[in-house]
Structures are given as structure tokens and as C-alpha cells.
Amino acid sequence: MKTVFTAVIKVRNSNPYILVSEARANSIKPGWRKPIPVLVRVNGKPRRQWRINMMPVGNGDFYLYLQGDIRRASHTSVGDQVRVEIHFDASYRNGPQHPMPIWFRRGLAANPQAKRNWLALAPSRKKEILRYFSRLSSAAARARNLTGALHVLSGAPGRFMARTWADGS
């Protein structure tokens, strides 16, 4: 089902967004409280709908953050009143989309604590790490990232993927 409405693009912590009311969010996906995967057009652009996750505010409303690409495509900026079209993205698949590299699988198998902490990670964090690993092209980069991942997943404090880790998470 398509939801169409007009709204003003606002900014929150330097991130342009449109506030989607609880009532509108319920018309997209009734009773949903976690990020909602949606397909979006702003002022009829882009021709192929943009995939975005609407983020919960906490009171039933959602933030629809508008990345630079969608604002450029729709020729809009903060303060503009826009026409928004939103569909629930039924084709969205959560969880890891990239296979676990064999070199990472072997590293986890050799380190039981790292493996336990890996299994306890949120699916979104696993997905982020596996997506990152899928883009590594050199053996040196894979070795460096394997060492860093196993270090923090083992429970040691450290930084990995621009995050501070403690106790394996």
C-alpha cells in the first residue's frame, strides 16, 4: 500500500529528515516498532524508488532520513515542502547478505570466545562486518582485519570498524 503526504524537510543532528507520524507509519506497516524498510520517492523522484529504513523515534513516530542522493535527485533541501510517496519494502531481507569468508570462519573456529561473542552480536552488526569483509581485496587487508576482529570479539577492549569494543560487543 502506498502512503502519500506532504511534509517539510527538517534537520536533526545535521541529518535531513521527514517526520512520519505514528498514524502514517501504521498505514505503511501496522504496529511496527523497529526500523521499517521502505521504498521512497520525493517529489516523484527518483524514477526508481529509493530504499531507506525509517527509524523509530520512540513515541510511535518515525524519522525518514533523506540522504544526499535522494535530495539531489528530487532537487530539494532542508526547509522545502515536499510530496512524499512511501511503500513498505516487502523484498527487504534482514540479516547478513554476504557469506562468511572462509578465513573468518576458520579464525572463529580457532577462538571459542570470539565465536560465542560473534553469535551473540545483533544481526545488523554481523551484516555490517560481513559486508565490510566482502570488499577486502588483499591478503594483507584480510589478515589485518581478521586480527582486529578476533581481538575485540575475544573480549579485549579495542577499536574495530570505527567502533570502540568492550567485552566482545
Write the layout of secondary structure elements.
Elements: E1 2-8, E2 10-12, E3 15-20, H1 22-28, E4 36-42, E5 45-56, E6 62-65, H2 68-74, E7 81-88, H3 102-109, H4 112-120, H5 123-134, H6 139-153, E8 158-160, E9 163-165
Antiparallel strand pairs: 1-7, 2-3, 3-6, 4-5, 4-7, 5-6, 8-9
Helix pairs in contact: 4-6
Give an account of the 3D structure:
The chain is α+β, with helices and mostly antiparallel strands. It has 2 domains: 2-88, Elongation Factor Tu (Ef-tu), domain 3 (Beta Barrel); 102-165, no CATH class. The chain is built from 6 helices and 9 strands. The protein has a 7-stranded antiparallel β-sheet. Helix 4 crosses helix 6. The model has no long low-confidence stretch (mean pLDDT 91).
Q: Strand percentage, roughly?
A: 25-35%
Can you tell me the overall shape? elongated
Estimate nothing, just give the exact number of structural domains: 2
Query: Which topology of the largest domain does CATH recognise?
Result: Elongation Factor Tu (Ef-tu), domain 3
Query: What kind of sheet is the major sheet?
Result: 7 strands, antiparallel
Number of strands: 9
Give the oligomeric state of the chains in this entry, treating copies of one chain as homo and distinct chains as hetero: single chain
What is the CATH homologous superfamily assignment of the largest domain?
Answer: AF2212/PG0164-like
- Figure out the total of helices: 6
- CA radius of gyration: 20 Å
Mean pLDDT: 91
Helical amount: 25-40%
Low-confidence stretches: none
SSE class: alpha+beta
What's the CATH class label of the largest domain?
Mainly Beta
Going across the major beta sheet, what is the strand order?
1-7-4-5-6-3-2
Summarize the helix and strand pattern as letters: EEEHEEEHEHHHHEE
CATH architecture of the largest domain: Beta Barrel
